[in-house]
Amino acid sequence: MVKIKKKVSSDFNNYCLIKYLKLLQPSWTKVFAYKMIRTKNVKINSKSTTINYRLQEGDLVEIFGSEKVKIKDLNLSKLKTLKVIYEDENALIANKEVKISVQSDEKSAFNNMNNRLLQHLNWDAGSNKWKPVFIHRLDYNTTGLLIAAKNYQSWQNLNKAQKEQQIIKKYKALVNGIVSFKERIIKLWLLKRDKKVEVVAPNTKGAKEAITKVKLIKHYFAHNSSLLELELVTGKTHQIRAHLASLNYPIRGDQKYGVEKNKKDFPYPALCAYKLKFLESIEIETLKNKEFEIRDIWFEKLL
């Protein structure tokens, strides 16, 4: 039997036990973590606990079980270097490339943005410190700016800022067709079915309202294309891609929501999360009124 003991530091005061276990055991699924708690293989202060338990500073977390519960030591040194745009003691902004997921999944089980972040910060899997993480996602083949929290307090503040729209996220997209409007606010309801999102009627069960602001930047008549700036008011899965496809202006290179004939120039969607703006109301002092922008966007070079 293997036994892991961890004393909870102030970084994890009021932190969810399940998330803490995932931090200690990256290979655990949520279902397995639930099972470990139910079977009393996880104890707090030598007593059995519940899946909803919130940690308190000074708690002793004990994990019992087979060899599988040993802390996994990831060899992060093998990963490519993170492209950092900005960094301070609380937050980090990175430029994501194509063909990489933000979180661990079937496409990027080890080589993902979260692990590159840990490599950049020299994070120790065996430490009793909060695990830095990106607070939002971009699709596997979408490039652009990502925000990471470096400590628990900044994670709470950044998530609050997202919910209260204190962070403005803008994208650029090259779409098929000559867009007929200069500006528009798209308000449509989306429903996720399998691995694709569909535009549905507002009263559809499980559907969620998604809002995107769209602004025309330039027409490219020779290429039958338009360059757009988009601002996310809500942040639903594939929101921009589904919204533009519903208007019959699918993103160039998007095989899921459009049909791209020129796969050589557009092997993946021409979409980039190119700008971030932090409002003065955000609680993190170092980010107040700051703005970050990518000027070197791959698909603009093709025009």
- Rg calc: 22 Å
What is the 3D shape?
A: elongated
N-to-C terminal Cα separation, in Å?
Answer: 62 Å
Kindly identify the CATH topology of the largest domain: Pseudouridine synthase
The run of helices and strands is: EHHEEEEEHEEHEEEEEHEE
Provide a descriptive summary of the structure in words.
The structure is a single chain. The protein has 303 residues and is an alpha+beta fold. It folds into 3 domains: 2-69, RNA-binding S4 domain (Structural Genomics Hypothetical 15.5 Kd Protein In mrcA-pckA Intergenic Region, Chain A, Roll); 76-163, Pseudouridine synthase (2-Layer Sandwich); 167-302, Pseudouridine synthase. 15% of the residues lie in helices and 31% in strands. Strands 5, 6, 7, 8, 9, 10, 11, 12, 13, 14 and 15 form an 11-stranded mixed beta sheet that branches. Strand 7 (133-134) and strand 8 (143-149) form a beta hairpin. The longest helix has 12 residues, at 152-163. It is elongated.
Outline of the structure:
It is built from five helices and 15 strands. It has 303 residues and is an alpha+beta fold. A hairpin with an 8-residue loop joins strand 7 (133-134) and strand 8.
Layout: helices, strands, pairs:
Blueprint: E1 2-7, H1 17-24, H2 30-38, E2 42-44, E3 47-48, E4 60-65, E5 84-87, E6 91-96, H3 113-120, E7 133-134, E8 143-149, H4 152-163, E9 167-176, E10 183-193, E11 196-200, E12 208-220, E13 225-232, H5 239-246, E14 271-278, E15 291-293
Parallel strand pairs: 8-14
Antiparallel strand pairs: 1-4, 2-3, 2-4, 5-6, 6-8, 7-8, 9-13, 9-14, 10-11, 10-12, 12-13, 14-15
